Amino acid sequence: MYCYRPLPVAAPRLGHDAVGARLASPASAAHPVVTAAVRGGGRGKPRPYARRWGPGEGWRGWHVFALFSVLVSTGVPAAALKLVPQPVAVTPGTGVCSVTALRPVLADPADADNQFAASLLRETLTECGLKPAQAGGVPVTLVTSGDGKPGMEMLREVGAVPGPELGSEGYRLVVQPNRIVLAGRSAAGTFYAVQTLRQLIRANRDAGDAIPVLSITDYPAFPHRGFSDDISRGPFPTLDEIKRIIVSAAELKLNCVSWYIEHVFVIPSQPVICPAGIGLSKEKMAELIPFAQRYHVELIGNFQSFGHFWNILKHDEYKDLRETGGILTPAREESYKLLADIFDAMAPSFSSPIFNICCDETYGLGGP
């Protein structure tokens, strides 16, 4: 019923940690096995780690927050389509649909989430030299499904009702010669359907500016799909650069972003920690969070809370808290007061209930 193929995922540069994941299908296995390799360690001492997960096992024993959007192909192969990530199922039809005069239409004109998603589609059409139609043309209807919601009759007509098996972020996309229908089980699902259509237009239209007639069913394999970016070692990104990263993540259907943070967050009660003129702050996060939410991206807090403390402990104010030059001592009450000040400033500034305290690499703890 399922076709599993090795799907190598190139490991991007995420500070000093990089993750590569792939799906493997041993001939003797009845189920796929996820394999992952992490190289980390910092300070010029990379160390290989490897772990395999089988059915019923979860993510265990990892401090690195880097989950990639890995989707398993089922049904008709989609290898001919340039789509990232590959959809779960693609059913090809007959013929093509011209994208020279697409007209985004909202089943519910008052739906603010779909208004924004439709604006992204219009941006893509303009970028590709394809003027969005104001009237006539090929309608592209965005529908977020639900009992009694507008557009449900159309979804039933074209066989695009997204069922509960797709989860909260799943969607269906139907391309016919004279119309396109995008349907999600939630605003996020409809948003991801739009992202797939944008990829179809950008990378899969033919010389006559047409895309193939087809039907796509898609949903994520993991509820959290994202990456961690090291902003503590190297040039600190501007807010505009951070926003571009969020936009790019959303285009790949990643729904969370985290930052590796040692000392680049402003802590009002500990002013020497963050260098002047750089770093994140409560005020900057107040700008980034609503921006990310429009793209259905959750911002997850992260702070190195035990090791990797060099940039804080180098200050004379914290010299009594040095277990080593880079480790916060666990033996003094003042260490916990410092951490409480940091967490009180950072944790409420993020939009996620998850906060990564990163208690890793405490080399030299307790002695040589």
General description of the model:
The protein is α/β, with parallel strands linked by helices. It has 2 domains: 89-218, 2-Layer Sandwich (Chitobiase, domain 2), CATH 3.30.379; 226-356, TIM Barrel (Alpha-Beta Barrel), CATH 3.20.20. It contains 7 helices and 15 strands. It has helices at residues 112-127, 152-158, 187-204, 239-251, 282-294, 310-313, 333-346; strands at 18-24, 33-40, 47-53, 89-98, 102-106, 138-144, 171-176, 179-184, 210-218, 226-230, 256-260, 298-302, 322-324, 327-328, 355-356. Helix 4 runs parallel beside helix 5 (282-294).
Which terms would index this structure?
368 residues, Chitobiase, domain 2, TIM Barrel, 2 domains, 6-stranded mixed beta sheet, 4-stranded parallel beta sheet, 7 helices, elongated
Sketch the major β-sheet.
Answer: 6 strands, mixed
Order of helices and strands, N to C? EEEEEHEHEEHEEHEHEHEEHE
The overall pLDDT average reads 81
Instruction: Strand order, main sheet: write it out.
Output: 4-9-7-8-6-5
Topology:
Elements: E1 18-24, E2 33-40, E3 47-53, E4 89-98, E5 102-106, H1 112-127, E6 138-144, H2 152-158, E7 171-176, E8 179-184, H3 187-204, E9 210-218, E10 226-230, H4 239-251, E11 256-260, H5 282-294, E12 298-302, H6 310-313, E13 322-324, E14 327-328, H7 333-346, E15 355-356
Parallel strand pairs: 5-6, 6-8, 10-11, 11-12, 12-15
Antiparallel strand pairs: 1-2, 2-3, 4-9, 7-8, 7-9, 13-14
Helix pairs in contact: 1-3, 4-5
